[in-house]
Write a structure and sequence with these properties.
Shape: globular
Organism: Algibacter agarivorans
Strand order of the largest sheet: 3-2-1-4-5-6-11
Family: Belongs to the NAD(P)-dependent epimerase/dehydratase family.
Number of strands: 13
Protein name: NAD-dependent epimerase/dehydratase
InterPro entries: Epimerase_deHydtase, NAD(P)-bd_dom_sf
CATH architecture of the domain at 4-159 and 195-226 and 266-278: 3-Layer(aba) Sandwich
Number of helices: 9
């Protein structure tokens, strides 16, 4: 059976490269990345790579994808300009969806974030606004044409090996593995729906398989476990499964961020209706993250 082609933006990113590893078993993967020469996670020859700076209509004409998964994102943590955030978080997915409709792709999956809920962190306001605007445009375009179904996932707090070292969980994992003397933290009572990255991948794979059953042109839904834990419990569990008895987690040494989201929990109603549930417990996911982090 001839494999169908799937586009993944941000294929060399945290979620993107985990998707590649799984979905390359059943699809020909074309990874859309900013640069094909500065890869951190993918190995040469693993998939076909195209730059998002190429004329994307030519890329679509060449490969005719059955689906697109948009994982690429810019947070603005490193001083990126607002136009650069809009380029990746709004302009790129909107352009890809329009091309998906033109070239008769069946499904477009967008990966959003729970950070867009509530008032939002002050330091991520540009990012949150761009993701909100992306969803608004995807809904509008999908409903106007109704030729390529859109699943717009509000993803909760993924974790696992291979995430950026600038991310909070990666920083803590590194500090725990190196047996840092102490880590100063907030009181840690904010609750999050932590989901192991392999469960995120299984949810997206199921969405690809079930996309033909979607009735509406645009569906916005949560991607998470449906359970939440305090950050304090998450970090204490991480330390416990690591066997590290030396590092002191100094809760309460730092203040909460302004507009801190104190509780976030997914309602994965669409995924649940398809029979999906997470395969990894928090302990299992944390242990695998520790084992696979260099």
């Amino acid at each position: 059976m001839v494999k169908q082609t799937l586009f993944i933006t941000g294929a060399d990113g945290f979620l993107g490269h985990h998707l590649v590893q799984q979905l390359a078993k059943t699809y020909n993967i074309v990874g859309l990345v900013r640069s094909t020469k500065t890869l951190k996670r993918l190995t040469a020859g693993q998939i076909t790579l195209c730059s998002t700076d190429e004329p994307l209509n030519e890329v679509f004409d060449r490969y005719r994808p059955v689906g697109i998964i948009h994982t690429a994102t810019k947070y603005g943590r490193f001083g990126e300009s607002v136009p650069r955030l809009l380029d990746v978080n709004v302009d790129l997915p909107v352009h890809l969806l329009e091309l998906s409709q033109k070239y008769n792709s069946k499904i477009f999956i967008n990966i959003g974030s729970f950070i867009t809920q509530g008032k939002g962190y002050n330091y991520l306001q540009d990012y949150a606004l761009s993701k909100q605007q992306c969803s608004q445009w995807l809904r509008l375009i999908a409903n106007k044409a109704n030729t390529c179904k859109v699943i717009d996932f509000t993803m909760h707090h993924p974790f696992g090996p291979g995430d950026s070292e600038s991310k909070f969980v990666s920083y803590i994992v590194k500090a725990i593995k190196e047996r840092t003397a102490f880590i100063d933290l907030t009181p840690g009572e904010q609750k999050r729906d932590f989901i192991y990255v392999a469960d995120v991948v299984s949810a997206i794979e199921l969405a690809l398989n079930q996309s033909g059953n979607l009735q509406k042109p645009y569906t916005q839904t949560d991607l998470g476990t449906g359970s939440s834990y305090t950050l304090r419990y998450f970090l204490e569990t991480l330390k416990a499964v690591s066997g590290n008895t030396e590092t002191k987690l100094r809760f309460g040494k730092l203040p909460y961020r302004e507009n801190e989201i104190m509780e976030a929990k997914a309602v994965p109603d669409l995924l649940s209706s398809w029979g999906w549930k997470p395969n990894y417990t928090l302990n299992q996911g944390l242990l695998l993250t520790l084992e696979q982090t260099i």
